[in-house]
Write a structure and sequence with these properties.
The protein folds into two domains: 240 residues, 3-Layer(aba) Sandwich (Rossmann fold), CATH 3.40.50; 185 residues, Rossmann fold (3-Layer(aba) Sandwich), CATH 3.40.50.150. The strands form two sheets. Strands 3-2-1-4-5-7-6 form a seven-stranded mixed sheet, sandwiched between helices. A seven-stranded mixed sheet has the order 10-9-8-11-12-14-13, sandwiched between helices. It contains 16 helices and 14 strands. Helix content is 35%, strand content 22%. It is α/β, with parallel strands linked by helices.
Length: 450
């Protein structure tokens, strides 16, 4: 994870001009008629920096709008000689309330409802159940959820973003993620996550409301006192990132990111582009080499590969396994893989949409799930893991390998997939982490096995 400080000079806001010029979204895409808006903020001011213009536009157009504040931001000046954490919490809660009133603007606009959870600033990752339950209470089946970017490199922002994404996936709701500190520490050249983001144009009224709401937080952009510990947290250079006439979000559409639509989604993809991930590029070839070198055993009897695509990894697994069954949701990919691997008698390739269908494999001593876990919903992922547990025999290896950056259109990320495996009690035997991917090989408890 990239480390940074708010005291750093940070990236020049002008460097992000190309992001603001990408093909824009429209407000009606985000909030169709009858939809309501729920915005989550880890700290007071996150909501106006990341989504103030959207909030103002929604209220002005009559959409019911709720802003859920997870903490009061009492840790903004941890060493302040003049303000206690309780005093800072009171100040920042009052600023939050003023900011929402400012965003509403016109008295004829819909009231913006604020919900404050009062959880500890800096420790939000420990309150998953509380935040998800609170979100469940305010959403409807027409809600658009807006939350901090899950790759913002701020632990509270990432935690709240992950919890919101889980709820959005469970209820098949539209999810927007807003970066805050990402603009500060990343650059367009060093990090490519911006390529999955879309700008939302703001009209003059929304822009004006947003800038006024930002100024409702003087505790963050003005010094609390002359003491160095009370210096402003948000510099004018940093605030410039939020002074433009667009807001930028990562969008995850409901329903697209699920196994239920995998056959349709990926069959269309493989028909259009036979090798959509360029399985012969340097990244893919190096990743396969690391994967194969990481396998604890020299030889396996019965392997199952989930997401075999066009067979690039399948062919190399066949050299280490007596039998390999590869399954993929795309019949087009399976057909291409069969042509590619026609001479390999120890390989069987089968169209199979997991977890709706269960691969016909028993007592596998190796299961490989590479780069497909985040194409499932959270519930589908748990079902798939249960299928794996029913498929393997004693002393088996289960290998998970996933890209660590956001996947545009899907709510889960690679880290989510691996965390879910850990939560089931799977024990990692091998762990290999790089900036782009995480590979783990697990020992999985088998029922009846001591």
């Amino acid at each position: 994870m990239t480390t940074f400080s708010h005291r750093d000079l940070g990236t020049d806001p002008k460097a992000w001009a190309r992001v603001r010029k990408q093909l824009p979204m429209s407000l009606t895409e985000i909030l169709p008629e009858g939809a309501d808006l729920v915005v989550l903020a880890a700290h007071p001011d996150d909501e106006v920096l990341g989504a103030g213009g959207l909030i103002a536009s929604a209220a002005e157009r009559g959409h019911a709008t709720t802003v859920m504040l997870c903490s009061d931001g009492e840790a903004s000046h941890p060493d302040s000689p003049t303000h206690t954490p309780n005093q800072l919490a009171s100040i920042r809660r009052a600023e939050f309330e003023r900011a929402l009133e400012t965003l509403r603007g016109d008295e004829d606009a819909v009231e913006i409802r604020g919900v404050a959870l009062g959880l500890p600033d800096g420790r939000l990752a420990s309150f998953k159940d509380t935040i998800e339950a609170a979100l469940d209470r305010v959403i409807t089946d027409r809600t658009t959820i807006v939350a901090p970017f899950r790759a913002d490199n701020h632990p509270d922002h990432e935690a709240v973003g992950k919890f919101a994404a889980a709820v959005a996936a469970q209820h098949e709701l539209l999810l927007l993620e807003y970066p805050i500190w990402y603009w500060h520490w990343a650059t367009p050249e060093s990090d490519t996550k911006w390529q999955t983001m879309l700008p939302l144009p703001l009209d003059d009224q929304a822009m004006s409301a947003k800038q006024a709401a930002i100024r409702a937080y003087p505790s963050q952009f003005e010094a609390l006192s002359p003491a160095i510990e009370d210096a402003a947290v948000l510099s004018e250079r940093f605030l410039e990132h939020f002074s433009f006439d667009v807001e930028v979000f990562r969008l995850s559409n409901p329903g697209l990111g699920s196994g239920a639509r995998a056959e349709e989604t990926f069959d269309a993809l493989f028909k259009t582009v036979p090798e959509p991930w360029d399985f012969n590029d340097d990244y893919e070839r190096r990743k396969r080499a690391i994967l194969l070198a990481s396998l604890p055993k020299a030889r396996y009897q019965n392997a199952l590969e989930l997401g075999s695509a066009t067979g690039a990894l399948t062919a190399e697994l066949a050299e280490r396994c007596d039998r390999v069954v590869g399954v993929d949701a795309s019949e087009t990919a399976v057909r291409d893989a069969r042509k590619r691997l026609a001479g390999l008698e120890n390989v069987k390739l089968v169209p199979c949409v997991i977890p709706r269908e269960s691969p016909d494999v028993r007592a596998a001593d190796l299961v490989v799930m590479s780069e497909i876990g985040y194409f499932l919903t959270r519930n589908e992922l748990e079902e798939t893991f249960a299928q794996i547990e029913a498929t393997i025999g004693p002393d088996s290896d289960v290998l998970l390998c996933h890209w660590l950056h956001p996947i545009n259109g899907w709510s889960l990320m690679g880290e989510d997939v691996h965390e879910a495996a850990h939560a089931r009690g799977w024990k990692p035997r091998v762990t290999h982490r790089e900036p782009d991917f995480l590979l783990e090989i697990f020992s999985v408890p088998v029922e009846g096995q001591s």
